[in-house]
Design brief:
Length: 451
């Protein structure tokens, strides 16, 4: 296969986001938009990925350096249009001889199949492949102008278009593929003599046609190429992603009582025969195995839930929570960086942090793993089959032995040995008749005052 590269344009200012965070770092489905494009590039087999950044966008450059390395950054200074932006990646792609695709840091939801089809057109002999869509409101989009053979003749920007061209509803998504050498040759001839005074990437189609080459358009759904310029469009992209993923999960065998109220992340994995009740949020990094039950109003993030486990209603699983088979985490229980063993239970009002709960252990209502002293975190271990009575504080580092019991209301600061009972609370005393005589005495005092 011809080697592949991607150039991701991310040098725009994104002022309409009204944000101190650069636009391409805003998230859709829990992942920065530019990371969606990087992931897409990888999925279609691009082994070189260059991101074109603006010189002032330090946060974006730092992000790209962390994800792809310094060599993946090309700087566009100053921005002079999309064609100029792609040219800025030329140096970074020096020596690369394969096919390239232009993607965007603010267009996160493009299906890999569409890009594969663009590369397919190149393999089929086209010099340039362009991803287009039927626009509901073509407005300011560039129009894809076809010739009699159904091939692409030109892309005309709305500002430059004639009334007949403006009537065309097949629009340019911006995504374009070409042999890299061809792309840079064509871009060298692009001028900025146009309405915006910019170097248009779109001009390469007309130039390729003049040179006698074939250009082709590949179609996809408008939703798939939604570019984000504002928070309104960010919310639209999010909604579009959620709708699509929910449908895929349903088809794959996940039961969702009210799918429109369930929110997933880009990497959420839910196996078949999982039941997800209404109003559940899956943050990044969650895997739920077949046969688990995620009950209403639960929030999961960075967690793994094994078969037969039950979560919620109203549970919170934070990063590092691992629920083994048939374990149960009930209402108002928070679990962080803690493994909950097979069949173990924490059914009500508890915090399990930095711990390990053995198989079959029972954590009573109101139990807190006191994992933090204001400086460092410490582990709590509860052995297999142990029983921790309600409203106990386990002050870490501490361990409760196998099959041990902790009396309700205990503050446990020392390890409990296997099979033992540990009770650490004030001893109960009783004064017979004390309450009755106290009441009588106080009532008499109050009555005397009223006279
Ligand atoms: C571009 C296309 C248009 C298409 C539309 C789809 C051109 C000339 N026009 O128009 O046909 O319908 O996208 O949304 O390509 N960028 C840079 N550096 C620049 C200019 C732009 O990095 O100098 C980046 C922007 O950050 C943005 C993207 O390229 O992500 C598109 O640029 P924009 O100016 O929004 O192009 P449009 O005018 O919308
Ligand atoms: Ca745009």
């Amino acid at each position: 296969m011809t080697s592949r590269a991607a150039v991701i344009l991310a040098a725009g200012q994104g002022t309409r986001m009204r944000s101190s965070l650069p636009k391409v770092l805003h998230k859709v489905g829990g992942r920065a938009m530019v990371d969606w494009s990087i992931d897409l590039a990888r999925r279609v087999g691009c082994d070189k990925i260059i991101v074109v950044c603006s010189p002032g966008g330090q946060a974006v450059q730092d992000h790209i350096e962390a994800v792809l390395g310094k060599d993946a950054i090309a700087i566009q200074d100053p921005p002079q249009g999309t064609g100029h932006a792609v040219l800025c990646a030329k140096e970074a792609l020096a020596g690369f001889a394969g096919d390239m695709v232009v993607l965007y840091g603010d267009t996160p939801l493009i299906p890999a199949l569409a890009v594969e089809q663009l590369f397919g057109e190149l393999a089929d002999g086209a010099a340039v492949g362009v991803l287009g869509f039927e626009a509901e409101a073509p407005g300011a989009y560039g129009r894809l102008i076809k010739n009699g053979a159904g091939d692409l003749d030109a892309i005309v920007e709305a500002k430059e278009a004639s009334p007949e061209q403006l009537a065309v509803t097949l629009c340019n998504s911006g995504v374009m593929a070409a042999r890299a050498s061809k792309m840079f040759d064509l871009l060298a001839s692009v001028t900025n003599e146009n309405a915006k005074g910019e170097y248009y990437l779109t001009d390469v189609v007309g130039l390729a046609r003049e040179a006698g080459s074939i250009c082709r358009a590949v179609r996809c759904a408008e939703d798939d190429v939604l570019g984000v310029n504002s928070r309104v469009e960010l919310a639209q992209a999010e909604a579009s992603f959620q709708t699509k993923r929910r449908a895929e999960l349903l088809v794959s065998g996940v039961t969702m009582t009210a799918p429109e109220t369930v929110f997933v992340s880009y990497d959420t994995i839910i196996e078949n025969d999982v039941i997800v009740e209404p109003n559940v949020v899956f943050g990044p990094g969650v895997m739920v195995h077949s046969g688990a039950n995620i009950r209403a109003f639960s929030h999961l993030e960075g967690a793994r839930v094994h078969s037969g486990a039950e979560v919620g209603p109203y549970a919170r699983l934070r990063p590092g929570a691992v629920l083994e088979q048939n374990s149960k985490i009930g209402n108002f229980v928070e679990v962080k960086k803690t493994r909950v063993g097979k069949g173990a239970k924490a059914n009500h009002l508890a915090y399990l942090g930095d711990g390990d709960v053995g198989d079959g252990a029972n954590i009573g209502a109101g139990t807190i793993f006191c994992n933090y002293d204001g400086f460092l975190k410490y582990p709590t271990k509860v052995g297999k089959g142990a029983f921790v009575g309600s409203n106990s504080s386990l002050v870490a580092p501490v361990s409760i032995g196998e099959n041990a019991m902790v009396g309700s209301g205990s503050v446990i600061t020392k390890d409990v040995e296997a099979g033992a009972l540990s009770v650490a609370r004030g001893r109960q005393m009783q004064k017979s008749g004390w309450a009755t005589s106290f009441r009588d005495k106080m009532a008499a005092i109050k009555a005397a005052k009223k006279k």
